[in-house]
């Protein structure tokens, strides 16, 4: 809870962190005075039948209670403001940090654990912040204050307080020392369960198609059982707390009444002082219980802080360049002897890939599954950094460019048709400004999104989560339209027509060719029909360039390309 990184978040709410505990301490002082007032009523007012005195002391008790309530409300308000504020800023920074991490950096964290950290872990930290303001100072102060007041009333009777306090503390230590380490295990088991849940939700069609529902149900049940076992161990340990501590409290009060009775008979204590001592005994032991619960919350919050810090402290391996302009006279893309392998892996996914794409060219990149096509696209967008060689976009090494400049110049339509909840307009704009209605209509026209005009709301038609209220082909065409918005210099279609029929695919490519003259277009595909009309085709196989040329040249001279064509096209189509 008190790490240096977290202190900067606490500092944003310094006033609440000072005012809240101060109000709570004031409330505790007022609470310590109440037993003394009660003692005066019992010792002075009742024996003397002094009604005005009893009413005056009663009014004082009401005043102390009302004042304590006022200070408690102020403290609660401060705790709520700081709790929600710290959580809000922390979530924002955590999400921003996740966005700054490269794909390779994010691979160190699963999606499930990132979701847990940004939700459950920050909730635990918020609970810790609230407890820090409300109770972390109040409970120790009440314990110490009650002991001092008890010693002031009768030093010998305070031995009962110390004995009961020691026994309760020993019980707390026994339970907490065994339960606290289990809270980290609970977080780990929860991560695993969320990962399984996410996989089941995202892959529900595959699960049903391969009749794996029973297997996945058993897998989830196993993860759930593991989480339940750890939670039950914690619950069983914590179940001892209340019965044992309240037993000690009651025994302590009984001891006070027994020994106090002898002292009252001897005249060394009054009945009112016995009542005050009983109240202080209850305050001490209940405060110990509350403080133990605070420790539990702090332990959970501490584990969550470590997990959140792990993400916030992750050093990006990819650093943004400073160049935000390009050389208009340079080639659109230059890939120079590029090698690539994932971190912690020696297997090269790309090896000595070398080619040049001139401005305004339409280029096809073709290859089978695992050829390295999508990896190459990710390198062009600098989602990963090359292991060897360099990639230049309009004369600039992509590592020297700002992310905004690079990704404004290069737009991609990826394999997955990802739409966000909102409207069609919001999905097309995707945060861009200065885009006119005509620009949006042009993008929709090129992408063959005529169905949007038929929607009652048009561009303001709602898009549900993941675009599930649109068909696969409609989602894919909307993603194409989104990539066209913003007038990019380079447009990449990464196998983005898999959900389209041949006619729609052909119409869309014809519209792109007609409307985007002068732009550089890359078609990454497994279909020969998608790339055959390109100015140049790059054949990839097992991460190596096996040939570069037009369709006719490669078909005549490259055996691998010819095999691909013959497997997809008739002889007349292949040679035409």
From TrEMBL:
SUPFAM superfamilies in alphabetical order: ABC transporter transmembrane region (SSF90123), P-loop containing nucleoside triphosphate hydrolases (SSF52540)
GO MF assignments: ABC-type oligopeptide transporter activity; ATP binding; ATP hydrolysis activity
ABC transporter domain span: 335-567
Membrane spanning stretches: 21-42, 54-82, 135-153, 159-176, 239-260, 280-299
A GO cellular component entry from the record: plasma membrane
Limits of the ABC transmembrane type-1 domain: 18-300
Compartments, record wording: Cell membrane
Keywords of the record: ATP-binding, Cell membrane, Membrane, Nucleotide-binding, Transmembrane, Transmembrane helix, Transport
Membrane topology (UniProt): Multi-pass membrane protein
PANTHER family in alphabetical order: ATP-BINDING CASSETTE SUB-FAMILY B MEMBER 10, MITOCHONDRIAL (PTHR43394:SF1), ATP-DEPENDENT PERMEASE MDL1, MITOCHONDRIAL (PTHR43394)
Name of the protein in question: ABC transporter ATP-binding protein
Source species of the chain: Candidatus Fimenecus excrementigallinarum
Organism phylogeny: Bacteria, Bacillati, Bacillota, Clostridia, Candidatus Fimenecus
């Amino acid at each position: 809870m008190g790490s240096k990184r977290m202190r900067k978040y606490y500092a944003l709410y310094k006033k609440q962190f000072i005012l809240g505990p101060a109000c709570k301490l004031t409330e505790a002082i007022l609470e310590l005075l109440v037993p003394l007032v009660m003692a005066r009523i019992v010792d002075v007012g009742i024996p003397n039948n002094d009604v005005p005195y009893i009413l005056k002391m009663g009014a004082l008790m009401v005043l102390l209670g009302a004042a304590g309530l006022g200070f408690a409300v102020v403290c609660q308000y401060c705790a709520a403001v700081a709790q929600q504020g710290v959580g809000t800023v922390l979530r924002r920074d955590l999400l921003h940090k996740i966005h700054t991490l490269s794909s390779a950096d994010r691979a160190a964290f699963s999606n499930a654990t990132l979701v847990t950290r940004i939700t459950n872990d920050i909730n635990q930290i918020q609970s810790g912040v609230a407890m820090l303001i409300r109770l972390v100072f109040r409970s120790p102060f009440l314990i110490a204050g009650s002991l001092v007041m008890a010693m002031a009333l009768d030093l010998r009777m305070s031995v009962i307080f110390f004995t009961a306090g020691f026994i309760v503390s020993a019980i707390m230590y026994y339970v907490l020392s065994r339960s606290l380490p289990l809270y980290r295990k609970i977080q780990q088991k929860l991560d695993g369960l969320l990962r399984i849940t996410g996989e089941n939700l995202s892959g529900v069609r595959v699960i049903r198609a391969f009749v794996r529902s029973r297997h996945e149900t058993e897998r989830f049940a196993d993860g759930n059982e593991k989480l339940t076992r750890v939670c039950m161990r914690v619950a069983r340990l914590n179940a001892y707390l209340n019965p044992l501590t309240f037993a000690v409290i009651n025994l302590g009060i009984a001891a006070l009444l027994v020994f106090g009775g002898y002292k009252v008979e001897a005249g060394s204590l009054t009945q009112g002082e016995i009542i005050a001592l009983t109240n202080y005994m209850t305050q001490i032991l209940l405060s110990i219980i509350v403080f133990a619960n605070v420790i539990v919350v702090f332990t959970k919050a501490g584990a969550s802080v470590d997990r959140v810090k792990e993400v916030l402290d992750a050093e990006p391996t990819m650093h943004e360049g400073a160049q935000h302009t390009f050389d208009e006279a340079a080639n659109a893309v230059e890939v120079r002897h590029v090698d690539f392998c994932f971190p912690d892996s020696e297997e090269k996914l790309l090896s000595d890939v070398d080619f040049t794409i001139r401005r305004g060219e339409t280029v096809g990149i073709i290859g089978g599954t695992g050829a390295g096509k999508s990896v190459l696209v990710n390198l062009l967008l600098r989602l990963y950094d090359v292991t060897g060689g360099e990639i230049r976009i309009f004369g600039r090494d992509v590592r020297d460019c700002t992310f905004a400049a690079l990704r404004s110049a290069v737009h991609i339509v990826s394999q997955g048709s990802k739409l966000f909840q909102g409207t069609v307009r919001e999905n097309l704009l995707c945060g861009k400004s200065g885009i006119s209605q005509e620009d949006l209509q042009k993008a929709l026209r090129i992408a063959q999104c005529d169905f949007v005009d038929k929607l009652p709301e048009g561009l303001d038609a709602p898009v549900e989560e993941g675009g599930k209220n649109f068909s696969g082909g409609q989602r894919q065409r909307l993603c194409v339209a989104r990539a066209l918005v913003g007038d990019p210099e380079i447009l990449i279609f990464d196998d983005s027509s898999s959900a389209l029929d041949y006619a729609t695919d052909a119409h869309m490519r014809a519209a792109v060719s007609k409307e985007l003259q002068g732009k550089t277009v890359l078609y990454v595909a497994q279909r020969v029909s998608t790339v055959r009309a390109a100015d140049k085709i790059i054949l990839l196989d097992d991460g190596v360039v096996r040939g570069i040329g037009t369709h006719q040249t490669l078909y005549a001279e490259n055996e691998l390309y010819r095999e691909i064509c013959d497997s997809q096209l008739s002889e007349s189509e292949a040679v035409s």
